[in-house]
Amino acid sequence: MQPDFNALAVFALVAEERSFRATADRLGVTRSAVSQTISRLEETLGTALVRRTTRSVSLTEAGEHLHAQIAPAIAEMRAATETTGSLGGRPHGQLRLAVSSIAERFLSGPFLASFAEANPGVQLDIVVTDEEFDIVAEGYDAGVRLGEVIEQDMIAVPAGGDERQLAVCSPAYRDSFGVPSHPRELAAHRCIGWRPAPKAAPYRWEFAENGKEFSVAVEPEITTNDMALMIKLAVAGAGITFGMEESFCAPIDRGELVPLLQDFCPRFAGFYLYYPSRRNIAPKLRALIDHLRGFHVTAKRPDGASSGSHAARQREITPR
Fold first, then answer.
1. Are residues 176 and 240 in the same domain?
2. I need a labelling partner for 306 at 20 to 30 A (CA). Which of 32, 88, 93, 130 fits?
3. Which residues of the chain have a pLDDT value below 50?
4. What is the pLDDT of residues 50-70, one digit of tens each?
5. Per residue in 253-275, pLDDT tens?
6. H-type helices in 18-104, by residue range?
7. Shared-domain flag, residues 52 and 121
8. Range of the domain at 170
9. Residues 141, 223: one domain?
């Protein structure tokens, strides 16, 4: 017996939400109806797809395999139906985005607010995360990350201008402990590090000299996954920290932080909005892409220049 395609769609939502209740809410049905649909699908396929506990829902190995196989097709069908439904009207529906926590310009209030105002039929659902995962399998329409870490089979649109990473400290720390003249001297300083997730290694501090890139083995006294906390600690004089320049612009302008080692901090291609290559791009996603191309964010940099999204960079590319 062939499985009910509606049941596969329900299963795909359960896999995305990891919750029968949240799936039921999205579908406008009862939790019991979702559970019964999954049970019938499991009986048809002859294998368990979902592990159920009182507090959580997870996929079995068979469930993970099935979801990976059907997720792209489900996404295509959603996009196709949304395209058809929007032929006579404006973009609508929920737009799910997974955005890096350090994509400052994309996460700026003015950009997202202006998109929401221009597209009242679109409901933005933004998850700010630095974990690496398959956005298609997890049910996201698109993501925003640094171009160098985006998979090659994705389509990517620049979400801003060039970026660079920068080391900073407070004037009080500088006056008390001095500052390094070369990145190799960081090992002798108190440092505040960043990690994307609890089990991940602290992020490397990367620099360049004479056109050659290198990293410094910094052992932070304090490590966190929260850039806002890193900035607060640095402003309080806890040590030197390192991150995207955009994150430090405001406290540098206020005189709370001072940039360090700028000659060793080259610029590189910044963040991209990325999404899977499809024949049918949902109107809600197309609206976001068009809005991104037309929206210019200019930010003052510590070196006195400005950075922003430039029309010359606004082209769809395959990363790397």
1. yes
2. 130
3. 297-302, 304-320
4. 998 767 788 999 988 898 888
5. 999 999 999 999 998 888 999 99
6. 20-27, 31-45, 61-85
7. no
8. 165-264
9. no
